[in-house]
Amino acid sequence: CEGKLLNRLDHFCGKKGLDIKGLSKATLEKLIDWEWIDGAYDLFRLGRYRSEWIKKQGFGEKSVDKILNAIEDARKCTFPAVISAAGIPLIGVTVAKQLAQNFESYDDFRWEIENGFDFTIFDGFGEAMHEEISCFDYDEIDRIVTDFFNFFQNAAVEQIAQIVLSLLMFTLPFILVYKIGGDKISSLISNEKCGF
């Protein structure tokens, strides 16, 4: 049903999902009407319609490029954002964050589901939540994660990546100075021109 598809996509793109700027419900409705999207997977392939899209009334090069860039940025989302965007009944942003704290990665989360994990062991997770998580159809989300997403699996990995990046940014100038000007600095020191 087109109405259900629109609502599902609106959630996926909205603030409680991937927060893709520019993909309002009205825009999504047009994309469905033009038969460019039939699910969330198709959102990540909208770039192939760019030349046609920029000629559509109400759109232009600038607005279409902003939307396509926002979709591209969404590919760098976090594990909790994927769970929240999936639209699993009873699983919102807060619960998605709780789930992400208990699993190493999206693949680990999916493996546990396939192997009958009991989600009721988590604080605040009742039988209804367990059933929704266990019985949800993950096919489209699995395809999206596999084909398009590049997200940090958990907060620890993200923090390590940020620390490594910070260290590189701090040490890189010193490495360059040493490599480029090391000989000159050494000769200056040996000639006592620097007053050391």
Task: Write a brief structural summary.
The protein is mainly α and 196 residues long. The protein has helices at 2-13, 25-33, 40-43, 50-53, 61-74, 79-86, 93-102, 106-114, 127-135, 139-147, 155-190.
Write the H/E string, N to C. HHHHHHHHHHH
Identify low-pLDDT runs.
Answer: 152-156, 187-196
Shape: flat
Q: From the alpha-carbon coordinates, what is the Rg to the nearest angstrom?
A: 24 Å
Could you say which structural class the secondary elements and strand pairing correspond to? mainly alpha
Q: Name the average pLDDT.
A: 85
Helicity range of the residues? Answer: 55-70%
Main sheet: strands, sense, barrel? none
- What is the CA-CA span between the terminal residues? 79 Å
Number of helices: 11
> What is the number of strand segments?
0
What proportion strand? under 5%
Written account of the structure:
The chain has helices spanning about 1-15, 25-35, 40-45, 50-55, 60-75, 80-85, 95-100, 105-115, 125-135, 140-145, 155-190. By secondary structure, the chain is mainly α. Helix 1 (about 1-15) crosses helix 2 (about 25-35) and helix 6 packs across helix 7 (about 95-100). It is flat, with a radius of gyration of 24 Å. The relative contact order is 0.09.
